[in-house]
Amino acid sequence: MTPATPDPATPEAWHDLKSELLEIMPAERLIDDPLRTLAYGTDASFYRLIPKLIVRPENEDELMAVLAACRSRRLPVTFRAAGTSLSGQAVTDSVLIQMGQGWRGHEILEGGQAIRLQPGVIGARANQLLAPYGRKIGPDPASIGSCMIGGIAANNASGMCCGTAQNSYRTVRDIRVILADGTRLDTADPASREAFRRSHAELVEGLERLSAETRANAPLAEKIRHKYRLKNTTGYALNSLVDFTDGIEILKHLMIGSEGTLGFISTITYDTVVDEPLKAAALVFLPDMATTCRATIALKPAPVSAVELMDRAALRSVERKPGMPEVLKTLPEGAAALLIDVRGNDEGELEARLQAVRDIFEGIHTLEPVTFTRDKGIYELYWKIRKGLFPAVGAVRDIGTTVIIEDVAFPIERLDEGVQALTDAFHRHGYPEAILFGHALEGNLHFVFPQGFEKPGEVERYQALMDEVAQLVGVEYGGSLKAEHGTGRNMAPYVELEWGPEAYALMWQIKALFDPENLLNPEVILSRNPTLHLENLKPLPAAHDIIDKCIECGFCEHVCPSKDLTLTPRQRIVIAREMARLEALGDAIDGEDAERLATLRRDYRYAGDETCAVDGLCATQCPVGINTGELIREMRHERLAKHADLSRRVGRHFSGVTRVARGALNMAGVGRAVLGEKGLSRVSGTITKVSGNRVPQWVPTLPKAAPIRVLKQRSPADGSKDKVVYLPSCATRVFGATHGDAESRSIMEITLSLLERAGFEVILPEMTGHLCCGMAFHSKGQFDEATHKARELNRELLVASQNGRYPIISDTSPCVLHMQSRLDERLSVQEPVAFAHDHLLPRLELTPLDERVAVHVTCSSTHMGLGERMVALARACAREVVVPAEITCCGFAGDKGLSTPELNASALKGLAAQVADCDAGYSNSKTCEIGLALHGGIPYRSILSLLDRASRQQAAS
């Protein structure tokens, strides 16, 4: 029994579908323009299909209506969560259903023993919620910081520590699922289960029949049990047919790993697992792969949390990463390494487990002594390097090629044979640069290699390799062709080869029971097309040096402030590449492509450029450090080159410009007093609209003008005091205290007060009112003037600090980040958190305030690694500190909060609910604080204000 094949849809069908859906959801959640269908339709795989329509339902009822509308027109649908999957299971040329902000619900159950999650929750967020209970979810894929629960469950993703015992299949308690016919089943609800048994008796009884037949077929049942002793995500979860007899339980477990081909999981409840708090790791270097595999087998029964294997080529790809042991560069050819992770609930348990591992290695030859680290920084570095192996290979590939990652599992007792066989196959087919790494305890190996498809013969070479690997792993070794990445399109043509015709027929029967019309993600997992894995391959043309090494993994997306508004960094790169591809056609471009290029350029101006905060947070998540904001700055530089003279005039008369800005704030204050907030907002909105957004929008949290006169009230020099140079940023020289805030002092007044209390003599640079670090010019692409201002500042700070003799504090964190890479290395410039930690706290006595405060860690603080110190500083000053979850960059971005206020609003959606019970919020960037106060509903101030209120001068000893 094979499901039907959908008919090609007519243009009228698509028009009618959109018209019907417009009756149930707003137009902004129905997307069919060329830019966004390409951007949103791209995932981390090396396949490219562009959806005809992208739909963003916000709840189950809307989703059911979408499924009904598509089913009535026989239009296939594909579900998408984060799009970090690698096998092509989340791309389509039909209807793509994307999980938006309405699917991020969560609920802790039974004191953390279980957690109920919607599919749009990021995996790491689930663990963050469970951390206070000492628990976590079982699955721990390398992409857990960016992938979502929907994808984790639908792919049965596992990872480093969970093995087969703690994956989604083993830890799912209940699900809510919506089937192809629109029926909703909640397996936690007895009434829902019974109603479903009555309404879908054919499905339930069909699953129970297949279960009985499978268990009665002893050879097939034993084959299934053997296959699932390994990690295995090839095909459907046939183990559900031998593990369960109840049709509802079979259905629940079949949904795990079904990749959206059987239904949509709208909620999943996991039984959680213990998250042991004490952790240690060691990089163990071994002379050859055979020894490495023998060591792995010896470690299998040991009390270890994870054992990760890396061959010599994998180690070579990361040996020059900062912090890596020098010995990596001297390892002999053929060497390998095991990253061993050991965890415990207390010191005694951890030490006993560490000793057990050391004892194992007493009889194994290693190249270096086995040394475990408990240093958090080194521990996290080891794991960051391991998780970044796949993208690291992608970063060094030839431009225009893609990077392939395959994911197999061998019986662990044959791991060394399997590794050697794979290595031989790579060399036979001309892939000597392939690297091997993986979850050694499970026999799960990833092999990664660059692959181009443009040159003649390359597709055939890749096919020959995959044919041999499939035969080798799936047949000769009885292993898994897809251990944890899902079958997708990539391995669909090989499912029958691995499983055999009997089990393969069983999978088709399952598909027909759930989806007889074959409308749910067709061609994924099961396909009759033997060359499906060679079709619709994604082009990766050269676009710009800044982004050419991107492999579109999507790790960057969750920290981007515009992710829910327009585009993410990955999506900006996707469109930049497509525009570059079309531009490269030159005179050969046809009319349709020329029109498409013009459309992409026009729409990218807003979606790609104007709504990019250029905060660079994407670089902190990117395994190869790509800062997409740098690409946008380059584009702005080209586009705004004609305004270079204006920028030069502004830079040369900067003190006058800041005076004008303060004057405008004074005028706004008068307008506020006369018209009231609502009246002024209406007038300002009209002016902004009439000016074509050239005049910024006034917002109620826009501060008063800064009292610049305070900088002239300098204390007489005192040779007995330590000296410090204070550089007030241009933002703090413009913006004073917020209207109506209990903190009525400007940041300049607060900073001077603190420095005096700490016993410093304050030195102000000459021409303070004229100085600027250049960041404001740099973010607009005005690089020449940015450089001029930075040089000007550098000169004055060298004079003021006596060539770096005295420390320098600047009160705005983003400015300090910008300075650090542009000023003389003799200068020590610190922002408020670092300066307070290093220079103020030792000189002050603190009495924590009886307040609950919120802390916003700015992008620049994240870049400088100051997040933990900032929170610690706040905790030293207040009774309780709240760090709002999933609020990364605020999106104010200097002036974007005024010129593109929707970016700030989107980035801070959800902030107000998290800080509602806080007395105030604190940060280290005045412009950020304007937007945070606006959307948080509480005052936001400089962290120095909190320190000033909680401190007093240290008593004389």
**What is the average per-residue confidence, as pLDDT, rounded to a whole number?**
94
**What is the distance, rounded to the nearest whole angstrom, between the alpha carbons of the first and last residues?**
88 Å
Percentage of residues in DSSP E strands: 5-15%
- Helix percentage: 40-55%
- The SS-based structural class is alpha/beta
- Choose one word for the global shape: globular
Radius of gyration: 30 Å
Low-pLDDT stretches are none
Looking across the biggest beta sheet, what order are the strands in? 12-14-13-16-17-15
* Total number of beta strands: 27
**Biggest sheet, open or closed, and with what strands and sense?**
6 strands, antiparallel
In DSSP terms (H or I, runs of 4 or more residues), the helix count works out at: 39
Describe this entry's structure for a reader:
This protein is of the alpha/beta class and 957 residues long. The chain is built from 39 helices and 27 strands. The strands form seven sheets. It has a six-stranded antiparallel β-sheet, sandwiched between helices. Strands 5-6-10-8-9 form a five-stranded antiparallel β-sheet. Helix 34 (867-877) packs parallel to helix 39 (943-950). The radius of gyration is 30 Å and the shape is globular. The N and C termini lie far apart (88 Å). The model has no long low-confidence stretch (mean pLDDT 94).
